[in-house]
Fold this protein.
Amino acid sequence: MLLAATIGEEVITSNIKQFLLVLSVSLGVATLPQIFSWFRHIPYTLLLVIVGLGLAFVDVRLVTLSPELILFIFLPPLLFEAAWNLKWSNLKRDLVPITLYAVFGVVISIVGVAIGLNQLAGLSLTTALLIGASLSATDPVSVTALFRELGVSSRLGTLMEGESLFNDGMAVVAFSFLVSFSLGTAQLGLPSILLELFTVVGIGVVVGGVIGFSISYLTQRFDLPMVEQSLTLVSAYGTYLIIEDLGGSGVIGVVTTGLILGNFGSRIGMNPRTRVIVSEFWEFLAFFVNSIVFLLIGDQIRFAGLAENLQLIAVSVGAMILMRGVAIYILSYVSDRLTQSPISLPDQTILWWGGLRGSVSIAIALSVSTTLPERDKIIATVFGVVLFTLLVQGLTIKPLLQKLQLLGDAPLREQYMELMTRHVALERVLQYLQKDQRPGIDLEFYRYQETLIKGELVDLQEDIDKLQQEYPDLRSFITEQFRGELLAIEADTYAEFVKAGRLNKELSPMLQDVLPYGDEKKG
C-alpha cells in the first residue's frame, strides 16, 4: 500500500514537472516577438509549432500527447471561449453559409480525400475514410487571431470561426460512425447515418441549451463575479462530460452552451463589470491552452513516420485543398442564391486557403483503436497534413490577404481609439475637478489644473479631426462603434429590468433593426 502511494506521488510529481516545462517553453516563445522584431511576422501559434518541431528534431519530448488530453482537457475551453465571443447577431446573419460549410463541407472533404487516397495511393477504403474524417475539422485559431490583429472584416472572421465551431462536432460524429463501421458495429447506409447524426447532434443541442439557459437564470439571483466566472468554467467541462456520457456530441453541446451564455446569460445574469471579468478570464484561458496545444503538436512529430508515408501525405494534402476549394466555392454560390447576401470572391479565397487543420484533427487520429492494422499510417498522414497546413498555409495567409486587398485599417483604428479614450478620460477628470471643491486646496491650483486639461483636450481634438480628414474611411468605423454603444446601453437597460424583477424576459434590442450598419448607410 505504501509502495503504491509512493509510486503515485512520483507520477504526480513527474507530471507536474512536465507541465511546468511545457508552460515555461510556451511562455518563453511568447516573449520572442518582443525581443526579436522579425518574429512578429509569424503568428504566435505557428511560432509555437516551429519551436516544437525544433525540439522534436533534436528528440526532446516534452510530454506524451494523448487524445484524451486534448479532447477532454483542452477542447472544451477552446470551444467555449470561441462561442462566448461569437455574437449571435453576426452568426444569425451568416447561419446559412456556416451551416452549409459545416455540414456539406465536411461530407465533401471526407469523400474527396478518401477517393484520392483509395485511387491514387492504393489505400483501403476504410482507412482512407478515417483519414478523410480526421482531416475534415478545420482549426483556424492562428488565422482568426491574425484577422483580429490586422483588422480584417468581422464577417470573414465570423464565417471562419462559425464554420470551425460547428464542423468540429460534425467531424467527430462522422469519425465515430466510420470507426464503428470499420469494427463491424454499424452499417454504412443513409438512414442509419442520418439517425446517428440527428441523435448525436440533437442530444448536444438540447442538453447544451438546458445547461446554458439554467446557468443564465441562476446567475440572475446573485452578483458574485468570481462565482459566476467559476460557473462558466464548470459549464464548459460539465457540458462536455454529461453529453458524452449520454451518447451525444460534447463538442456541439459546449458550443451551444457557450453561445447562450455569451449572448444571453451574460446580458440578463451579469452586470457589465462581471462580463468584463469573465471575458478576460476566458481570453487568458484560451491563450494558455493554445500555448500548450500548438507547442505539443510540433513536439509530437515523428520524422521517420512522416518520411515513410510521404506519398500518403502528399495525396491527402492535394485532395484536401482541392475539395476545400470545391466545397467553399460551390456552397458559397448556393448560399448566395438562398440568402441574397453574397460572399465576395476574395473572401471565398481566404476561406478556402485559411481552412487550416490542427489539434482536433490530431486528437481524432490518435483516438483510432489500436486493433486497426493501419493505425500508424492514419496518425502519420494526419500529422503530416496538419503540419503542412500550419506552416505553409498559415504562413502565407497574410501575403494572400495583402494580395487580395483585404487587410483592414487596424493600426488607424487603434490610434483613433487611443485618442478618443484619452479625450473621454480627460473630460471626466475635468468634470470631477469642476464639481469637487475641497477645503484647504488653493483655488489657483484648481484654475491651473483646469487650464492644463482644457489645453490637452484641444490638442487631442485637433489630432482626432486631422485623423478623420486624412482617412475618411474611419467614419464608418466610428459610426459602427457608436452604434454598438447605443445597442449596449439598450441591452443593459433590459437586463437591469429583468434582474430587478420588473420584466419577465430579456427583450431583443429594438435599435438593432432601426439603426443601419455603417456600410449599409454608406451604400
In short: The mean pLDDT is 82. The radius of gyration is 26 Å.
